[in-house]
Write a structure and sequence with these properties.
Elements: H1 4-19, H2 32-53, H3 68-87, H4 91-96, H5 112-134, H6 137-152, H7 156-173, H8 181-213, H9 219-230, H10 234-239, H11 243-265, H12 273-283, H13 287-297, H14 318-345, H15 356-368, H16 379-382, H17 386-402
Length: 404
């Protein structure tokens, strides 16, 4: 199955390549020390991948149809209906009508919103694994139905998390065909066309959001607004690439630009007990724990420097550098390398045929999104890792009760 260390390498390699295109005047030049640091983490990750490879949990296994998915889907629909009723809005309808809408306008029911967002992502990943195992159209319909709420609330991030996790499940199912002619045929005829389609849809949704934020009506102005936000170079304009594809370039490469911006601006960071405790609370703990500790001790999460207010993604390393300079980067890199080993150790062999595929796909997705933010801190992503563990324990207990 796909290895999280390979995902980390891939996740940071693409933006490094895109960054070299120099399509935005906002971006500072990447320093040699930062490039060297990233390349060194690649080398360490490549070494760690052999340790994880020994575990059977990385193997792909099929699962059978589970009739409980109908009940869970009904419950999810009820909870999402309550969530949208609480806010008295369906964001997608607001945008399609041309009304002004900001994604922060939809908050949902406190606590419930975070739970249902995280559970829905895990459940969709599990359903896709079930679909690949059973080839059942019924399961595919349940998958699509459970994917719809992310579109209704216009959560591009939630939608992308599910699609990428599903992609990892699909690649895992084809792992025996990798490096064969048949796999490359699948890659060229199926995976890449679907990938480019989703990239284009992602850009279309971004342009729609811009149009909505302008008050609606002027679609062309909304489509062109991305050029102003990006401060694109004449080289990009001459290429004639549709604005929809510019979104992916910016979202992929701007995190490195923000990281470099912090390194340029924060060169005299003093390391003391306050900055060390701030690093532990802000960077190594999920936000639902971190925020409570901050309120107890009267602390505030420090905001990193951005190249522009439009581009807020900062990589997993920006906050670490902000607290502890290069020491923070080194500690965070060590945490990233050891976390998969810790997580996999929580599974036992009896779990391997049930939820481990969804678990590793979710872990891979988290590591893919480390480019954009500290996903260990963002509970909307990191908390998804808990559900496969809980489901595995429940499943194991039921099996014990069935045995004579």
């Amino acid at each position: 199955m796909i290895n999280p260390y390979y995902v980390y390498i891939f996740g940071f390699s693409i933006p490094l390549l895109l960054y070299s295109l120099n399509w935005s005047t906002l971006y500072p030049e990447l320093s040699f020390s930062l490039i060297l640091f990233i390349l060194l983490t690649f080398a360490i990750a490549f070494c760690f991948r052999t340790v994880v490879k020994r575990h059977r949990i990385l193997s792909y296994t099929k699962i059978s149809y589970n009739s409980n998915i109908f009940k869970i889907s009904i419950l999810n629909c009820f909870l999402w209906s309550a969530n949208m009723a609480y806010n008295r809005m369906i964001p997608l309808l607001y945008i399609l009508r041309g009304d002004s809408f900001f994604y922060t306008d939809f908050t949902g029911i406190p606590t419930l919103h975070v739970f249902i967002m995280t559970f829905q992502s895990f459940f969709c990943t599990y359903l896709f694994h079930m679909f690949l195992s059973t080839k059942s159209i019924k399961v595919l319909c349940f998958y699509i139905i459970n994917l719809c709420p992310f579109l209704l609330i216009f959560s591009r991030g939630g939608f992308l998390v599910v699609i990428i996790a599903s992609t990892f499940v699909y690649l895992a199912s084809k792992q025996e065909q990798i490096f064969t002619f048949n796999f490359y045929k699948i890659l060229m005829l199926k995976i890449l066309p679907v990938l480019f389609s989703f990239i284009f849809i992602f850009g279309v949704l971004g342009n729609l959001r811009n149009t909505s934020q302008l008050g609606g009506g002027n679609v062309e102005a909304g489509n062109n607004l991305i050029y102003q936000f990006a401060e694109v170079t004449p080289d990009f304009v001459r290429l004639g690439i549709p604005s929809e594809f510019l979104w992916v370039y910016l979202y992929s490469s701007s995190p490195l630009a923000n990281l470099q911006q912090n390194m340029n601006n924060e060169k005299n960071i003093i390391i003391n007990l306050d900055t060390i405790s701030g690093f532990i609370i802000d960077e190594l703990m999920p936000d639902f724990v971190s925020k409570r500790l901050q309120s107890i001790f009267g602390l505030e999460r420090r905001e990193v420097t951005l190249i522009s207010k439009a581009w807020t993604t900062t990589t997993v390393y920006s906050g670490s550098y902000f607290h502890l300079s290069w020491l923070g980067l080194i500690i965070m890199a060590c945490f990233i390398m050891f976390f998969p080993l810790l997580y996999i150790s929580l599974f036992s062999p009896y779990n391997y045929n049930n939820f481990h595929v969804s678990a590793i796909a979710t872990l891979n997705t988290l590591y893919f999104f480390l480019l954009f933010d500290n996903m260990f801190y963002v509970s909307a992503m990191s908390f998804q890792l808990v559900y496969p563990l809980i489901a595995s324990k429940i499943f194991h207990k039921k099996n014990k009760q069935i045995k004579p």
